[in-house]
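Below is a filled-in request sheet from our internal design queue. Each sheet records the structural input a requester submitted and the sequence that came back. We keep these sheets so that new team members can see what a complete request looks like end to end.

REQUESTER: design group, bay 2
PRIORITY: normal
MODE: inverse folding
CHAIN LENGTH: 267
BACKBONE (tokenized):
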């Protein structure tokens, strides 16, 4: 029993110790901003929050809009699934009581529709991210690639072919984060959805992600990200430490919090 308790404390203590530190962007952090939620756990009310904000798991949007569509004014946040917000949802954006919609993987345009980051995986080892951030590792590698081709074979085989950057073997999450931190640039091809955790892992570790153009990524044009029209354009890049410094500028990863992507009046 003592061994079990010791193991439990060893696991939980880092979470308690880091409670005052930066909270990373995740789907569940966006959910925590909302009074109401509809996801795999059903309909719930967060009584710690007093607002008119709804969080909906993206793959349950159609069910939510058919069965739970509010009649009063509300803000909608959709996240925690790789499905995109596409044209079929445009009629709902014209509803006068929908104040604004913030969503992951935006694939259409509307004045009341804004992309929010996928951020880090809800269940990733966030303490490992904090450990690697605190190491402030020196940049020793120009371009890094570590992704599974099988996740999006067409897109990622094209990325591999056109960039010629070999895919590193997986050595565990913290080792991966250290490799990212050592790198100036990180390739981040589309996966199951348009947005990838890798893009935001790179930014948290002061590496510049390289992605391809989409409606979604245009929302982040002011962040230190290289956006290519296609992977064929990679050969036209002149990637150097000097270019890294020019693009990165004075950007501070501590900016990357959910509060900075949802205006105060909408949460």
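RETURNED SEQUENCE:
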């Amino acid at each position: 029993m003592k061994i079990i308790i010791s193991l439990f404390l060893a696991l939980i203590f880092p979470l308690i110790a880091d409670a005052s530190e930066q909270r990373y962007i995740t789907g569940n952090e966006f959910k925590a901003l909302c009074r109401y939620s509809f996801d795999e756990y059903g309909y719930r009310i967060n009584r710690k929050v007093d607002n008119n904000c709804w969080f909906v798991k993206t793959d349950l949007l159609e069910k939510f809009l058919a069965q739970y569509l509010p009649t009063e004014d509300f803000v909608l946040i959709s996240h925690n699934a790789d499905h995109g917000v596409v044209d079929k949802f445009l009629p709902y954006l014209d509803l006068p009581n929908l104040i604004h919609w913030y969503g992951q993987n935006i694939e259409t345009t509307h004045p009341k529709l804004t992309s929010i980051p996928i951020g880090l995986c809800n269940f990733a080892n966030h303490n490992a991210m904090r450990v690697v951030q605190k190491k402030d590792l020196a940049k020793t590698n120009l371009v890094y690639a570590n992704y599974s081709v099988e996740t999006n074979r067409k897109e990622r085989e094209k990325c591999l072919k056109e960039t010629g950057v070999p895919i590193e073997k997986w050595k565990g999450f913290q080792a991966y984060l250290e490799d990212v931190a050592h790198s100036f640039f990180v390739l981040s091809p589309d996966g199951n959805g348009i947005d990838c955790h890798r893009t935001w892992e790179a930014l948290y570790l002061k590496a510049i992600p390289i992605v391809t153009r989409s409606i979604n990524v245009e929302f982040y044009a002011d962040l230190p990200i290289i956006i290519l029209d296609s992977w064929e354009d990679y050969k036209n890049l002149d990637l150097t430490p000097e270019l890294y410094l020019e693009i990165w500028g004075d950007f501070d990863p501590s900016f990357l919090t959910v509060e900075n992507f949802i205006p105060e009046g909408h949460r």
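SHEET NOTES:
- Residues 27-116 form one domain.
- Strands lie at 36-39, 42-45, 53-57, 74-79, 98-103, 113-115, 141-144, 183-187, 208-212, 226-228.
FILED BY: M.R.
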